[in-house]
Amino acid sequence: MQKFIKLIALILLLGIPDSLYADRAHDLAKVASKQKAVTGCNPASLTTQTCHAQFPTGCTDSAHKYDAYLNFLKNQVPGAALASTAFLNGTDFKSFEGKIPKTLGSSNHAKSAPALANLGEGNIVTVIAFLYFVEDTGKGAGGKPSIGETTNCKLQLPDSYDFHIGLGFDPALAQQILKNKPQPVFGHPTEMDKTSVVAEMTPHTRGPKWTFARVNSLQGQQVKVVGQLMVDNTHLNANDDCAFPGALASCWRSTVWEVHPVTRFFVCNLKNNQVCDQNSPNSAWTSLKNVP
Hints:
The chain has 292 residues and is of the alpha+beta class. The chain has helices spanning 2-14, 18-21, 24-30, 48-54, 68-74, 90-97, 113-118, 171-180, 191-194, 212-216, and strands spanning 86-88, 124-136, 163-168, 197-201, 222-231, 257-268, 285-287.
């Protein structure tokens, strides 16, 4: 036992605890530079299943390259059994936003992978918040049809789009949303949009009962969302990210940090204006698949 204790002390003294503290975040970051964009593929020959089986970073039918490591993260399938490593709240997301490496741009995610892994990107986290809204990205926006994302091989099939979920932390705003059921309007973001943290249900990780209608029925209610912590750097700009320096009135999200993909989803079932928290028992939460 004494030899073991001395070994641990030596490792800590030398500052080489990687083998002791290795986690999912750093495991993913180690392969960041190996991810490559695939151009010139034929979406017409693919399904949602074959897309993700053949192309870990997605693909595009054009010659324009995309951020391969970002897509690689989006296409992860962590599985519902993978344990959460932390509870995050609105303050945590604001703090993380301020720690994003200055070198991170819209298409160079891999270069910042180690620094972002130090912040937990790639780990599984839990967020207890209010469901502000949900959008089916396959419906398009602003009267324009959806063109499909490279992460999903530019597919335009009914099951090849993400559900874009807005999570918020303001109980008063949540009550208004619960009462009025407002819907996001493309190009006209409101407080509901601007203060939301994005979570994404991806086509290849959604359970069969994770339907848009079922998620949408929970608008305004308190939910618990488990999934991968990730930065969507394509939105790291003044037009989209309301936390970005000099953010414009058009910004529509509170941060570029996301829960993506979602691996588990619950709604608080307590009555009489009671709220759930991280200490609430499992019986206080109803899994999305069991929502009527």
